[in-house]
Amino acid sequence: MSLNLQEVIIRDAVINDLPDIIKIYNQAVLTGISTADTKTIQLEDRLEWFKQFDPQKRPLWTVLYRNQIIAFTYLTSFYGSRPAYDKTAEHSTYIDKNFHAQGLGSFLKDKMIKACPSLGVENLLTMYFDHNIASKKLNEKFGFTEVGHLENIATIHGKTHGLKIAILNIPPSPKN
User: Fold this and answer.
1) Is residue 133 part of a domain?
2) 8 A C-beta contact, residue 121 and residue 88
3) Environment class of residue 64 by beta-carbon count within 10 Å: exposed (0-12), middle (13-18) or buried (19+)?
4) Which residues of 84-119 are buried (b: 16+ CB within 10 A; e: fewer)?
5) Mean pLDDT for the chain?
6) Would you give the distance in Å from CA 144 to the centre of its chain?
7) Does residue 30 or residue 172 have the better pLDDT?
8) DSSP, res 175
9) What domain range is 136 assigned to?
10) CATH number at residue 83
11) Is residue 175 part of a domain?
12) H or E segment at 11?
């Protein structure tokens, strides 16, 4: 399906979005490209996960197109939410397979980067498998710097892969 980004709506996720979020996430599980989960998940597996998000600090956004959830994107606190890392968050995005390679990843990365100052995020991390070329190119496009490569750290569908870690430093919001 062809996507018109001008028709895309981004909003804070609500609990009723969880079935669609899980459907999209499970697509990623099956590909073995963008998540370390190796088995599909169920609704009850994500109830506690859903509760961690806060629209003011660590949002979970659902992405709608023509009244259908086609993606979700979110920030999670780095290293177990320890206070010293409060200005650092990891960005993750999952897109329905029918909407890949249509500019949605760039659109969402840009929106999240622009939101970071108001969310108190100055260090935006992204972690992706070294065989995920699309994520690598997307992060390079936005100026992320690779700061780590954990080689041969994950086994997915019988193959061993490494994890790349990249960071984008974002200037804080000016104080009023």
Assistant:
1) yes
2) yes
3) middle
4) eeeebbbbbbbbbeebeebebbebbbeebbeebeeb
5) 94
6) 14
7) 30
8) P
9) 5-169
10) 3.40.630.30
11) no
12) strand 8-12
C-beta of residue 94 within 8 angstroms of C-beta of residue 24? yes
Q: Is residue 52 part of a domain?
A: yes
0.85 surpassed by pTM = yes
Say if residues 96 and 133 touch (Cβ distance below 8 Å). no
In whole angstroms, give the CA distance from residue 9 to residue 17.
14
Token readout for 26 is 């499970």
Q: How many domains, the chain? A: 1
Neighbours of 77 (CB within 10 A): 18
| Closest listed residue to residue 58, CA positions, set 125, 8, 145 | 125
**Within a domain: 110:** yes
CA distance 13 to 72: 8
Over residues 46-60, the pLDDT tens digits come to 999 999 999 999 999
Q: How confident is the model over 19-50, as pLDDT tens digits? A: 999 999 999 999 888 888 889 999 999 999 99
Neighbour order of strands in the sheet with 60-65? 8-12, 60-65, 68-77, 88-95, 123-129, 159-169, 145-156
- Residue 46's nearest CA partner among 77, 23, 27 is 23
